[in-house]
Amino acid sequence: MSEKQSLADVRFHLSVRDCFSDIGNHNLDNTIGSMHNRNMERDPVIEAKNLFKNYRDLTAVSGVSFEVYQGELFGFLGPNGAGKTTIMRMIQCVSPRSSGDLSVFSRDTDRDGRIIRSRIGVVPQEANLDPDLSVEDNILVYARFFRIPPMEAITRTEELLSFFELTRKRKTPIASLSGGMKRRLLLARALINRPSLLILDEPTIGLDPQARHHIWERLMQLKQEGNTIVLTTHYLDEAQRLCDRLVIMDQGQILAEGSPDDLVKRYFQTDIIETDNDPLIRDCLIKNRISFETAGDLIQIKDALTPLVADHLLMQCSGVRIIRRPPTLEDVFLLLTGRRIRE
């Protein structure tokens, strides 16, 4: 059988497979739809409709709409300047919206800011712990802002220090803590008022893998206990592991919304081939009319005939290094927002 015939056969089988996959996709759509309907039966913890935030000539958030439900871990992804932190500040009631609607706990964020802030916990991107206080005192002093009685504050602090494995560091000054311990302390402090909503801005930024996994475990435990969590992150593996649903943003707009797995399936129907960005390989791909993208020193191929392409490269280009892998949320992110570095 000639190579052209084999390609034709593969394309025929793919077309037949796609006909049947449409039936499967219909069932998948029904499943996703039923999940959405179950959410619709509950009042959202956060609800935004056509939300705008303008700074003179800059539109930081441009007509976004989304809902976050009780017990969800909801993520905001996007490059620098996408509008994620601006939305977080509006949810926290520290930055008024320009137009549109935004409610938290069914209360208007501009009108009922004091009530909303009493029921949320916030972990900022930059550590703002008091360097003059110990680990324990950072939490106890923060409890006063919520008018928590002293004995109750001590009890809650003990529980939080234990939960985040900081009990042995209770008297330690902040300057002596590692980066991971500081992030855990920020989380503990944010939970002192037992918030109905936890907002995390880059919760694991700058941490080593061990510290990141420790915080992931605690966040998953909090979610399993029914807590509602909203986070922003630049770590795509973190979002894929933690988030029930998420939005991908760029230039103040929402480009896509869904669960991590749903988004990957929506934009990629096959594995991805990666190989060296070599002139010989590029010529081979162009000659055979195989579309590809360059990403630095790599060539990426996202063709429906991925297995056949891989075999063809191995036959035509001796010594070629080929990696075939499943698509990830990072691939979706780069597809939608591009590879240009944002300042």
CATH architecture descriptor text of the largest domain = 3-Layer(aba) Sandwich
* Helix content estimate: 40-55%
Low-pLDDT parts are: 1-29
Q: Which structural class should the secondary elements be placed in?
A: alpha/beta
CATH superfamily of the largest domain: P-loop containing nucleotide triphosphate hydrolases
- Strand line-up of the largest beta sheet: 6-7-8-3-9-10
Notes on the structure:
The chain has 343 residues and is α/β, with parallel strands linked by helices. It folds into three domains: 1-41; 46-265, P-loop containing nucleotide triphosphate hydrolases (Rossmann fold); 270-326, 2-Layer Sandwich (Alpha-Beta Plaits). The protein has helices spanning 3-40, 84-91, 113-117, 135-144, 150-163, 179-190, 209-224, 236-242, 260-267, 279-287, 306-316, 329-337; strands at 46-55, 58-68, 73-77, 99-104, 107-108, 120-123, 197-201, 228-232, 245-250, 253-258, 272-276, 293-295, 298-301, 322-325. The strands form three sheets. A six-stranded mixed sheet has the order 6-7-8-3-9-10, sandwiched between helices. A four-stranded antiparallel sheet has the order 2-1-4-5, covered by helices on one side. It has a four-stranded antiparallel sheet with strand order 12-13-11-14, with helices on one face. Helix 4 (135-144) packs across helix 5.
What's this model, at a glance?
The chain has helices at 3-40, 84-91, 113-117, 135-144, 150-163, 179-190, 209-224, 236-242, 260-267, 279-287, 306-316, 329-337; strands spanning 46-55, 58-68, 73-77, 99-104, 107-108, 120-123, 197-201, 228-232, 245-250, 253-258, 272-276, 293-295, 298-301, 322-325.
